[in-house]
Design brief:
About 10% of the residues lie in helices and about 40% in strands. The chain is mainly beta and about 130 residues long. The chain has a single domain (about 1-125), classed as Immunoglobulin-like (Sandwich). The strands form two sheets. Strands 3, 4, 5, 8 and 9 form a five-stranded antiparallel β-sheet that branches. Strands 1-2-7-6 form a four-stranded antiparallel β-sheet, with no helix packed on it. A hairpin with a 7-residue loop joins strand 3 (about 50-60) and strand 4 (about 65-70). The longest helix is centred in the first third of the chain and has 9 residues, at about 1-10. The chain starts with a helix and ends with a strand.
Length: about 130
């Protein structure tokens, strides 16, 4: 039952943050790309600086393959105070990739990442 509750919470909208995709979700296969994310505090509507934005990349649609590209890693915060975070990765083949994106607001414990999760799809089409 605990696993089902955990899965259910991960399928809900983020509880404390808003995560907005700022870059084109179509990226070239075999070339390093940057995906830009804007993170806002859901209650103040202001950019969230100093958060930990943790990303795991899955080859395929969300929760379909669980074929992960390495370990989870932290997105890089850009221009302090703007809430802009950059995920850099190289799609190894054409196809769909899912960015399992978790946010830990500043000063909050690690378990907040489960309440602030969203899956973002990007495509690397064949050339």
């Amino acid at each position: 039952m605990n696993g089902m509750m955990e899965m259910s919470s991960m399928m809900q909208a983020p509880r404390y943050v808003i995560i907005k995709l700022e870059s084109n979700p179509i990226i070239p296969a075999g070339k390093e790309s940057q995906i830009k994310l804007l993170v806002f505090d859901k209650f103040t509507q202001k950019p969230m600086a100093g958060a930990q934005v943790i990303v795991g990349i899955e080859r395929g649609g969300a929760m379909t393959t669980m074929n992960m590209m390495g370990r989870m890693f932290q997105a890089q915060e850009q221009s302090n105070g703007t809430g802009l975070y950059v995920v850099t990765f190289t799609p190894d083949n054409n196809g769909i990739y899912t960015l399992h994106t978790h946010v830990i607001p500043p000063g909050k414990p690690m378990y907040y990442m489960m309440d602030n999760h969203i899956d973002i799809g990007v495509a690397a089409p064949a050339r």
